[in-house]
Design goal:
Elements: E1 2-14, E2 26-27, E3 30-31, H1 46-59, H2 64-67, H3 80-93, E4 96-106, H4 116-127, E5 134-139, H5 145-148, E6 152-164
Helix pairs in contact: 1-3
The structure holds magnesium ion.
Magnesium ion binds next to strand 1 and helix 1.
Length: about 160
């Protein structure tokens, strides 16, 4: 017998005032060439953070802040791909599998559409699932609000988990 569980995750990170070569822009596990840095305890990969929260939410397992506190010095600068790998191990222990994922990134800058295939390839690799189970969209806010003012990037992720009960 199987059951399906839905989860939603949301994250936002602001850009730093100055670009730092030690903090390149990493989204969905892909390092982008744009000279933009995000303020974060980790690598700032808000797509993976939203995804972790959606996965944890669907599994009824809390949120990313509980599992990986931003006060933990061992997590300073950590690759969010490592956090996602830990979340995936937790799901595997609970016999949950990913049905599908739908992600919406909200950014005025940089232009994300050219990286869509790289994001899909990376997510497929990190999650060990077929690309056909992953969808990622990018939108702007038409210049409205903080994101429209190029102050940061936000992301929503929705996940369907299939569990064996
Ligand atoms: Mg975050």
């Amino acid at each position: 017998m199987t059951e399906t569980r839905i989860g939603h995750g949301y994250d936002v990170h602001r850009f730093t005032d100055e670009f730092s070569t030690t903090k390149p822009l990493v989204l969905a596990g892909v390092t982008l060439p744009d000279e933009l840095s995000l303020l974060a305890h980790s690598d700032g990969d808000l797509i993976l953070h939203a995804l972790c929260d959606a996965l944890l939410g669907a599994a009824g397992a809390g949120d990313i802040g509980q599992h990986f506190p931003d006060t933990d010095p061992n997590l300073a600068g950590v690759s969010s791909a490592k956090l996602l790998a830990q979340v995936m191990r937790l799901l595997a222990r609970e016999n949950f599998f990913i049905g599908n994922i739908d992600i919406t990134v909200i950014a005025q800058v940089p232009k994300l559409a050219p990286h869509r295939q790289s994001f899909l390839d990376s997510l497929s690799n990190l999650l060990n699932i077929d690309i056909s189970r992953i969808n990622i969209k990018a939108t702007t806010t038409e210049g409205l609000g903080a994101i429209g003012n190029k102050e940061g990037i936000a992301c929503h992720a929705v996940v369907l988990l299939v569990g064996k009960v």
